[in-house]
């Protein structure tokens, strides 16, 4: 076959079977003629060890020279590692972001993540991501789409960053599931918004004020013994709220809280003497397995945030969250010289870096100790001038 030109292609006639004529000047460029007489320019190439063909366009709609130029572009893309034919098939069968999200929920989130994380992810998908991006094909979504979505949430930087983090995982799985080419995650290189880290913890004066307030409210009947115990246990153990709120008597041993499941999996939490005494003061009911009993006969105290708001308001600690009680435990530990590796195990952190966020607090303890040493030495040595 010679070079494909308009005159040559016009002269080719259909046969009972489909036939391809190849250009002798540009390898992998040809014309496919169907028995119906329809003529379509094609490009043939090899990708991933397989021979593939991609339709370029119909003769008559485009010229032979236009098709030749397009074939060169296709071959150039292949040389850079692309697979145009496979990409087209992927584009045609690509689900929408909403369809991907629903598979992400059933095939990943519900199988591998904790219930609270499942709820967070599902809410982010259905309330934030779907309304903005849900109708776009997964194959077609771009970095600019994600960046524009991220920008719209700039007034809530923590939420904006969490949504992008979720999408990053989701689009990694989209590649694994064959919905996008590998290494094309559209969230890559997106710069996260800075987040103001909340490190509120109670100093000794505030701790004393909180203790007095809770004791008075217990005496006045403003909070129950179980609510009182819940907040004290948070401070005495450094546990997460859910770990105390949903604590069962079956998990309580003489020396530890043996949690079969938590945010970071199975946990064994040391139970100090003060915490054991507090637990011993609580009534155990045969019909209720939970330690912190709520309003329902067989359940736990469902909303500890409500009594906490009353307590912190009366104590003048309006900016203190329940999670800050855990921060307080960690700060006291660091300022008293507890080794970070040991504290990591006590708090149940997955990574040491999380524990080391409190490391700067040890500077206060070191400074105080250095001052005590210098004071003793100066008393012994006498006046310095």
Automatic annotation (TrEMBL):
Domain Tyr recombinase: 188-371
InterPro entries for this protein: DNA_brk_join_enz, Integrase-like_cat_sf, Integrase_catalytic, Integrase_DNA-bd_sf, Integrase_DNA_bind_dom, Integrase_recombinase_N, Integrase_SAM-like_N, Phage_Integrase
Keyword DNA-binding on entry: yes
PANTHER family the record matches: PROPHAGE INTEGRASE (PTHR30629), PROPHAGE INTEGRASE INTS-RELATED (PTHR30629:SF2)
Signal peptide span: none
GO biological process, one term: DNA integration
Keyword DNA-binding tagged: yes
UniProt xrefs under CDD domains: INT_Rci_Hp1_C
Stored Gene3D superfamilies: 1.10.150.130, Integrase, DNA-binding domain, Intergrase catalytic core
This protein's UniProt keywords: DNA integration, DNA recombination, DNA-binding
GO MF term list: DNA binding
Family: Belongs to the 'phage' integrase family.
Protein name (database record): Integrase
């Amino acid at each position: 076959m010679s070079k494909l030109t308009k005159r040559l292609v016009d002269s080719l006639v259909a046969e009972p079977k489909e036939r391809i004529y190849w250009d002798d000047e540009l390898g992998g460029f040809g014309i496919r003629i169907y028995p119906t007489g329809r003529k379509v320019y094609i490009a043939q190439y090899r990708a991933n060890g397989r021979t593939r063909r991609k339709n370029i366009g119909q003769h008559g709609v485009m010229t032979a020279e236009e098709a030749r130029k397009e074939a060169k572009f296709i071959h150039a893309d292949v040389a850079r590692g692309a697979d145009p034919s496979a990409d087209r098939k992927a584009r045609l069968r690509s689900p929408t972001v909403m369809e991907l999200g629903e598979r992400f929920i059933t095939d990943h989130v519900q199988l591998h993540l904790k219930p609270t994380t499942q709820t967070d992810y599902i809410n982010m998908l259905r309330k934030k991501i779907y309304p903005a991006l849900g109708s776009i094909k997964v194959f077609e979504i771009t970095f600019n789409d994600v960046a524009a979505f991220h920008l719209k949430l700039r007034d809530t930087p923590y939420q904006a960053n969490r949504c992008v983090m979720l999408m990053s995982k989701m689009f990694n799985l989209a590649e694994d599931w064959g919905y996008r080419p590998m290494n094309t995650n559209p969230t890559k290189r997106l710069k996260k918004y800075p987040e103001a880290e909340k490190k509120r913890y109670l100093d000794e004066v505030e701790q004393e004020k909180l203790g007095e307030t809770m004791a008075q409210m217990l005496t006045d009947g403003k909070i129950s013994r179980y609510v009182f115990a819940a907040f004290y246990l948070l401070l005495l153990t450094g546990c997460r709220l859910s770990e105390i709120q949903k604590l069962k008597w079956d998990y309580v041993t003489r020396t530890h809280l043996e949690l079969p499941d938590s945010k970071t999996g199975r946990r064994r939490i040391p139970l100090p003497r003060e915490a054991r005494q507090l637990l011993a003061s609580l009534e155990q009911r045969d019909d209720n397995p939970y330690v912190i009993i709520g309003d329902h006969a067989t359940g736990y105290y469902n909303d500890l945030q409500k009594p906490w708001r009353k307590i912190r308001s009366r104590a003048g600690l309006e900016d203190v969250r329940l999670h800050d009680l855990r921060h307080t435990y960690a700060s006291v530990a660091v300022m008293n010289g507890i080794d970070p590796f040991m504290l990591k195990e006590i708090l149940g952190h997955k990574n040491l870096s999380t524990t080391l966020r409190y490391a700067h607090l040890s500077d206060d303890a070191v400074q105080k100790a250095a001052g005590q040493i210098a004071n003793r030495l100066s008393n012994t040595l006498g006046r310095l001038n």
